[in-house]
Write a structure and sequence with these properties.
Blueprint: E1 12-16, H1 20-31, E2 35-39, E3 53-55, E4 67-70, H2 80-87, E5 92-94, H3 95-100, E6 107-111, H4 116-127, E7 133-138, H5 144-154, E8 159-164, H6 167-170, E9 180-183, H7 191-194, H8 197-205, E10 216-220, H9 224-230, E11 236-239, E12 247-250, E13 253-256, E14 261-265, H10 274-289, H11 294-303, E15 312-317, E16 320-324, H12 331-339, E17 345-350, H13 359-365, E18 371-377, H14 381-388, E19 394-396, H15 400-411, E20 416-422, H16 432-447
Parallel strand pairs: 1-2, 1-4, 2-3, 4-5, 6-8, 6-9, 7-8, 9-10, 10-11, 16-20, 17-18, 17-20, 18-19
Antiparallel strand pairs: 12-13, 13-14, 15-16
Helix pairs in contact: 1-5, 4-10
Length: 448
């Protein structure tokens, strides 16, 4: 076994998958002078030239390995080479596990079904008040391994690794141990990979697999599953918009419990919705562990600009708004979006799904009185419409462009248009970003 051994010089390391994580792991293994073999199931542009051996299929060559690093995009249950390697007892680990072997800097890792990117981006601003080098990585466009290489090459000091971590990245961890693990929420998602909710929940909980008295867990007490798991665990700090913990809320204002000091009014930030109030609480609890100056912290939160495609205000005139929440790829995120508004809204709801629809959950999400009309669109649109047509005012317009134009017509330039689809984008788009950009293009062309 090689686990947690910094000396991988001349060890035969196979990296499965040539995406962001795979390239990052390749870069780190090569820097540490391992014999690297990069195996991908299709051709890719090779940034390493002839420094490493590569292949464009997962062949028998992978068996000649001391260690295998598995990219998160590869489903271990569906990949034949993974079973072969497992039967040979070759250690298989995730990229975040591998990267963690080579850093002495603290790790702050954030996971959850919704809100991860917003929280890590807020923390990235906040932590710069304390750390000289805040290395943002993980499931947010740059790999943990790439950041570790930069850390080692530049001999960075006073550094912290801030990671957004997905369930896929946690599947094959062994010794990965954040100084602070934060779980924002866990709702039904990625069931096509994990099979059922319990398996998905168990994968998420691996973030605390190596938690002990020298580390911390920050968790959302309003999530019943998380509450039952962590309420008795050492160094577990809950946050809640319903209950009083280190911080408490009144309406949209957060107070510090020890002194009843007012910390921040959400209305003074650019963040909409109850779910973002919860995200702010997560950041406050993490900042408290790290002794971040509260005044500097509040300034960072007030100046923070929301991420694209996450409750993004695309158009605003007086009280009329159009919201792009294309990142909403599960029903819980749509529920959060709908609850963010008291005024009447037009909801754009639909997209792509291979899973059986949860009728009760769809009905519960769409029962709010402020929903004036629901426009069902996309591959899943007809199924949604069949569930809702006798329950609430709804219309089926499967073409995305036509659905957007219908929402503008129904809004009468008064009712807020909320594009919070609740489903994935793969019926018409590569990802939620492309879908969100298309939505914004249509809106801007109409209102220019």
């Amino acid at each position: 076994m090689i686990y947690h051994n910094n000396n991988i010089k001349n060890k035969k390391i196979t990296i499965l998958g040539a995406g962001i994580s795979g390239f990052g792991a390749t870069k780190l293994a090569n820097y540490k002078k391992a014999k690297v073999f990069l195996s991908n199931n299709k051709k890719f542009n090779n940034p390493f030239n002839n420094k490493i051996e590569k292949e464009f299929s997962h062949s028998e060559k992978c068996k000649d390995s001391d260690l295998v690093i598995l990219s998160p995009g590869i489903d271990p249950q569906k990949n034949k080479i993974i079973k072969i390697l497992s039967d040979l007892n070759i250690p298989i680990i995730s990229e975040i596990e591998f990267a963690s072997w080579f850093t002495n800097s603290p790790i702050i890792a954030i996971t959850g079904s919704n809100g991860k990117s917003t929280v890590v981006k807020m923390l990235h601003e906040i932590l710069q008040e304390k750390y000289e080098n805040v290395l943002l990585g993980g499931n947010i466009g740059i790999s943990f391994s790439s950041n570790v290489v930069d850390e080692l090459k530049s001999e960075l000091i006073n550094s912290v690794h801030l990671l957004e971590v997905s369930s896929f990245q946690l599947e094959n961890i062994k010794t990965f141990k954040p100084y602070i693990s934060c779980i924002l929420n866990v709702t039904k998602d990625h069931l096509d990979r994990h099979g059922d909710f319990n398996n998905y929940l168990n994968q998420k909980m691996k973030i605390t697999k190596n938690h002990d008295s020298n580390s911390f867990v920050v968790y959302n007490e309003d999530d019943d599953n998380l509450k039952s798991i962590f309420k008795e665990k050492i160094n577990s700090l809950p946050f809640s918009i319903q209950k009083k913990n280190q911080f408490f809320t009144k309406k949209k204002t957060i107070f510090y419990s020890k002194t009843n000091e007012k910390i921040i009014d959400q209305n003074k930030t650019n963040l909409l919705g109850e779910h973002n109030l919860s995200n702010i609480l997560a950041c406050l609890n993490i900042s408290e562990i790290l002794n971040i100056n509260k005044k500097q912290l509040v300034n960072s939160l007030i100046n923070f600009k929301p991420l694209k495609h996450r409750m993004e205000v695309v158009y605003k005139k007086n009280s009329f708004m159009i919201i792009n929440d294309s990142k909403s790829t599960n029903l819980d995120s749509t529920n959060s979006a709908v609850k963010s508004f008291k005024n009447e809204i037009i909801l754009l709801f639909g997209g792509f799904s291979k899973n059986e629809l949860d009728k009760d959950e769809i009905i519960n999400i769409t029962k709010y009185k402020n929903i004036s009309e629901i426009i069902c669109f996309g591959q899943i649109g007809k199924q949604i419409y069949e569930i809702l047509k006798k329950k609430t005012k709804s219309v089926l317009i499967q073409n995305f462009n036509d659905a957007i134009l219908k929402s503008i017509e129904l809004s009468l330039n008064k009712k807020t248009i909320v594009f919070s689809p609740g489903f994935k984008s793969f019926d018409e788009f590569k990802n939620f970003e492309e879908r969100g950009e298309h939505f914004k293009k249509i809106i801007k062309s109409y209102f220019v």
